[in-house]
Amino acid sequence: MSASADGRRDRLRAMLADLKMPGALEAVDGVLAQLDSGAVTAGEALERLLGAQITLRNNRRLETAMRASRLPAVKTLKEFDFAFQPSIKREQIESLHELGFLARKENVVLLGPPGVGKTHLAISLALAAAESGRRVYYGTLASLVESLEQARAAGQLARRLRVLTHPALLLVDEIGYLPVSRDGAVLFFQLINARHEQASTVLTSNKGFEEWGAVLGDEVMAAALIDRLLHHCHIVNIRGNSYRMRAHQDLWRSMQRADGDASPALGRGT
Ligand SMILES: Nc1ncnc2c1ncn2[C@@H]1O[C@H](COP(=O)(O)OP(=O)(O)O)[C@@H](O)[C@H]1O
Ligand SMILES: [Mg+2]
């Protein structure tokens, strides 16, 4: 490389540092080398340089959003095995991942027994929303109610309700595993009421709607809550076997096979 090319590279590096573009700074040497060797045109080189910066910025945004959202795990649509869960309409799930429901402030309720992938699909929707730059927030029903109760005790209920109304997507997980006090259910109702037609809520439950009255300790309030939720809502009803149990069953079968090989005297399978 000539002295003037060296000088230009150093100046470019200084400019990118000055502009606080670490992604482009990291890519600039490689891009210049590609340019010098004739592997890319000037236009392509610019595209790669700026593309590197945008990728880094998007990854950082997503990381920040992930930390703020409190999502308990990373689960994506790609990792979801539709063949295992034939009751799920694949087109419905894929079209939800296009996120039109967020713009329309519609809700999503995923219903089904434990282990069928409700939380997985709800998280993958939340991730898609975070990737698109939207604010998302995760809580189990129990933890959300607890945080509302604490806020009320501290005289901060209105503020907490505002904070929880802000995210474009609120994921309320695990409705039905732990019963909620009637008082807690009133707070949850206030939250859903505040979000109604303002922003989308994605909920999961192992209990059908007819059992929510028992979960929330009040039939009338549960009916009012369900009425709000279902007003603009996509329902994903999953009838099927637990994916967790499938893993156990595979393990159990392989243990039985190993066992059978090692100790034929037990006479298993005869
Ligand atoms: N169809 C599926 N394909 C791939 N992984 C799945 C599938 N269904 C469930 N899982 C995985 O099995 C575990 C249990 O699923 P989860 O979504 O937590 O169930 P639920 O919330 O319905 O109880 C999770 O680790 C999840 O990623
Ligand atoms: Mg779950």
How many structural domains can be distinguished in the coordinates? Answer: 2
Structural class: alpha/beta
Tell me the series of helices and strands, N- to C-terminal: HHHHHEHEHHEHEHHEH
Runs in which pLDDT lies below 50 for 5 or more consecutive residues are 262-270
In spatial order, strands of the major sheet run 2-3-4-1-5
Q: What distance lies between the first and last C-alpha atoms, to the nearest angstrom?
A: 77 Å
State mean pLDDT (0 to 100 scale). 92
Record keyword descriptors for this entry.
alpha/beta; binds adenosine-5'-diphosphate; globular; single chain; binds magnesium ion; 270 residues; 12 helices; Rossmann fold; 5-stranded parallel sheet
